[in-house]
Amino acid sequence: MYKERKIDTALLDWAKSSNHKPLLLRGARQVGKSTAVRHLGEQFESCVEINFDKQKSFHPLFNGDLDAHVIASQIANLVGKQVQPGKTLLFFDEIQACPNAILSLRFFAEDYPQLHVIAAGSLLEFALAELPTFGVGRMKSLFMFPMSFDEFLMATGKSGLIAERQKASPLQPLNAVFYTQLVQQFRNYIMIGGLPEVVCKWDETGDYLQCQELQDELILSYEDDFAKYKKKVDPVLLRQVLRSAASQITNKFVYAQASGEKASKVREALDLLIMAGLLIPATRTSANGLPLGDEADRSYQKILLFDSGILLRLLNMSLGSVRQITEEILTASETDLVNKGKISEMIAGLEIIKNMPSNLRHELYYWTREEKNSRSEVDYLEPFDARVLPIEVKAETQGGMKSLWNFMREKNLNYALRCSLENFGQFDYEDKMAEGAIRHVDVIPLYAISQMPIFQ
Questions:
Q1: pTM of the full structure
Q2: Looking at per-residue confidence, does 239 or 327 come out higher?
Q3: CA distance 105 to 408
Q4: What would the pLDDT profile of 113-122 be if each residue is shown by its tens digit?
Q5: Is the bond into 445 cis (omega within 30 degrees of 0)?
Q6: Does residue 230 sit in helix, strand or coil?
Q7: Element spanning 196, H or E
Q8: Residue 130 to residues 98, 127, 396, 427, 443: CA-CA distances in angstroms?
């Protein structure tokens, strides 16, 4: 049974548009790209799918002249199905295995715009990096990630919790019954993560151990892909960097902790894992104004792993046991769960990305200041209402938010968000160090990041 995804709306909008350029569906392996395209294919009279990794007999069709009409006709003859504009969805899967097929998308856009064409691939970013003139402006891209918490709730039959939560706001907190249920589901989400195959296993069995076995298999499949990465980086180094990133999550990434290799080699491996979608960077910025990227320092990044379930399994492989972490996730108080680990901070960043429009490659930013015997950091920064919006992942009350107050005072800001596992709420802080300026903070729970004002 198909599990609804946020990307479905964007795909359907593309299919219905009169200007449907060839579409690239981009994202890490196993996030559900092929399944989502096949689901879209049900809206057409037929869906013709070619997997260039498995069906190498199709590669010669893309040698020589890249005439879109001729290629479509040859594909129809090979598969024994008609390829008709407006009636057929032509799906090129694992397109990175046939670079000429990527180049052909430009000519489908120019010469056969009536035909609906979608391409996807697990290592597509590597192929695109080597084809800088593949057709910018002639194609549309959508970005896909593991399931968000809202998608997890829908996939596990808990859509009613979303409906109840959407009635709540900082001015009107949740009913205690629904609050308790949402916190419990969020704990499950941390453990299971958002990879569709694992979520389906959880929905089917409710068994953490079976999900963990599947996550271990998926990790091995990701590592098997390392040998296919275009640049010649030792797969052993890639494994070391991936595991080190798991242990360094939400901290400034330290190359020396990853491997004994030169920093340049570790950086290259890190960049490849980011390109593959397994790691996601958050970049430090001075945040004196918008856009945030104008003052970004890309030599100073903290790294997020793309999925919390995979993170926990990688930590288990590196540390030998994550029993204490698991117990905290499943049984600790809401305050301890947020304060004693970095997982909640990581998930907050991932949820921000997942809830952005699918046509955006969204970048995460944060602010930090190092001083002697003192360090200030604001976890995430987003543009909102033409100003910088600071977002803190915290469980403490206002007295424990010194970094946030320092940042707001320095940047002359009066509005911020706090993400925690508490209920919706709000409070004002009188900043006596700034002539009594009032700093207003809305509390948006970690299980409700999709209801942040930046998404309204």
A1: 0.94
A2: 239
A3: 47
A4: 999 999 999 8
A5: no
A6: coil
A7: helix 196-205
A8: 12, 5, 47, 51, 44
